Amino acid sequence: MKTIAIHLRLETASHRKRMMGIFRHVGASNAWDVRIIPNEDILCKQLLTENPDERPDGIISGIPYSKQALSAISASGIPFVGIGMTESELSARSSKCGFVLNDNEGIGRSAAEYFLSLGDFRSYAFVSDTRGRNWSLLRGESFAAALKSAGRCCITYRSSEQDAATLSEFLAKLPKPAAIFAAWDGRGADVIHAAHKARLQVPDDVSILGVDDDDLICEHTVPTLTSIRTDAEGMGEHAARMLDALVNGNARNHPRNIKCPILGITERGSTHPTSPASSLIKRAVSFISSEAVNGITPDDVARHLKISRRLLDLRFKQYESRSVAESITDRKLESVKQLLANSEVQIKDAFRRSGFGNVAYATKLFRETFGITPENWRREQRAAMSGAAASAPRRSGQLERLSDISNADAASLLELSMQLSDESAFDVESLRRSMQRGTTSIFVMRHKARIIASVSVACFATPTGNHCRIEDVVVDERHRGKGLGRKLMTKAIEALRAMNVKHVELTSRPSRTVANELYRSLGFKLRKTNVYGFELKDA
Q: Cis before residue 223, ω within 30 degrees of 0?
């Protein structure tokens, strides 16, 4: 009889189901003396022991987290099967080992397909596991890729062990209704708790999907958690068969890697199709976007949707941060800006072509909204475009000054801001309005159309004069060490010179040594002044 050591985390349902699958095979053959290993320290001792009385004939393990355990598995000659591990995580081990995996790419695709089948959400997000494990990354990447192919963008929330507050803030910032895919059911429960803390309604504001269909978790959240069913028992049975072959020298006829497909999705209270109201607002926004320049009114929008004006106003108040009339005006003003920046049309014609009947009123509105006259705005835009070489904004490595924030750009900027600070605040609509008024400018660099670096510039006037500050200088952690920060700052300064800015300031924490060295090398001087902060929420 073979002695087999099994290391699984039996506090989780998926690992208990894997154990059931292992025993299903053991019961059929009755050829194993099973030892249950409770922790990774004992796993390491079992793998490295030279004592023949303590040395097992084979080991099955769930995903080991410690480097010590991975090193022990690599150094051991004992036949080994890892459940949930990838071969790349154990590259030093070339023989007497095998791997049984979930189809993590398939899980991510299924999550995207499920949410897309429910209706049209305004935002999509993936909440990773707290350890950044490979299986979680694969699920998130596949989820994002499937959404991208459907014309949607995904925002990824990279987790930490103690992140209840930041997770609540993250959920609160997402455009609603939002679809949230959690890496596993435990994180799905965390998301539900964070949503309640942010005073969000599940599933009306956020719909949440987990993985593993763990009844102990899914049936005891409020509301209950919808989850993807993985074949945990099948994984255990495959692992047992594979180890049998390795122990008995029959591995040639068995694959080294086995991937188990999902079994389906168990729907519960945390998801449901998006409400008719959100679909109505999407149709309204689409109509405004295409017809605002033709001089439409809120009554025209209501007639197009075949609803009362009162109901239209009510739904807009629920889902948008501005009224129907404000939405129409903002779209018309954006059209004016586009015409002034990208054509030779006369200013009065730009207003008329954008749907304004009264040019004098529209000119005053432009100045009040953006804090600058149409003539000066056109002059600054053309100077910035030529001075910052922004004529080809989508080319990789080139500086671009954003004129608006698309959904994809919002996702990239939020991801960058989370790398800069876990407490970063990001409200797309507020930032968009600030950009429209001309008080905030955002300069970015792209790689394959995705924003990988950004710097924000805030310009404002006070009785002591005009002021300009550089904020939020950040380069994606995957692209650091390539000199992009210096290139971004240099180009941004060139653009500010072209905008006739005379003086600019920035602040930087002393702990950011690399950033501080960059700023000094560019000519920034350290000022001897005190910087104070005051938390209004604590007053």
A: yes
Query: Model confidence over 49-106: pLDDT tens digits?
Result: 888 888 888 889 887 767 788 888 878 878 889 898 776 666 666 678 889 999 999 9
| Parent domain of 450 | 380-538
CA atoms of 454 and 473, how far apart (whole Å): 6
Half-sphere exposure of 423 (CA within 13 A, CB side): 0
- Global confidence as pTM: 0.56
The torsion region of residue 256 among left (phi > 0), alpha (psi -120 to 50) and beta comes to: alpha
Sheet of 257-260: strand order equals 32-37, 2-7, 58-61, 80-83, 97-102, 257-260
Note whether 407 and 509 are same-domain residues: yes
- 265 vs 381 pLDDT, higher one: 265
* CA–CA distance, 232 with 211 (Å, rounded to integer): 11
- The residue whose two tokens read 């269909």 is 213
* Closest among 351, 322, 536 to 432, alpha carbons compared: 322
238 CB neighbour count, 10 Å cutoff: 26
| Claim to verify: residue 281 and residue 191 sit in the same structural domain | no
Q: Do 518 and 394 sit in the same domain of this protein? A: yes
Q: Which SS3 state, helix, strand or coil, does residue 80 take?
A: strand
Give the count of domains, the chain: 4
Sheet with 226-229: strands ordered across: 154-157, 123-127, 178-182, 206-211, 226-229, 264-266
Peptide bond into 56 cis (omega under 30): no
Residue 246 half-sphere exposure toward CB, CA atoms < 13 A: 26
3-class secondary-structure state, position 448: coil
Cα dist. 320→281, 327, 351, 412, 501 in Å? 8, 9, 25, 22, 35
Distance of CA 455 to the CA centre of its chain: 19
Under a CB-based contact definition with an 8 Å cutoff, are residues 2 and 247 in contact?
yes
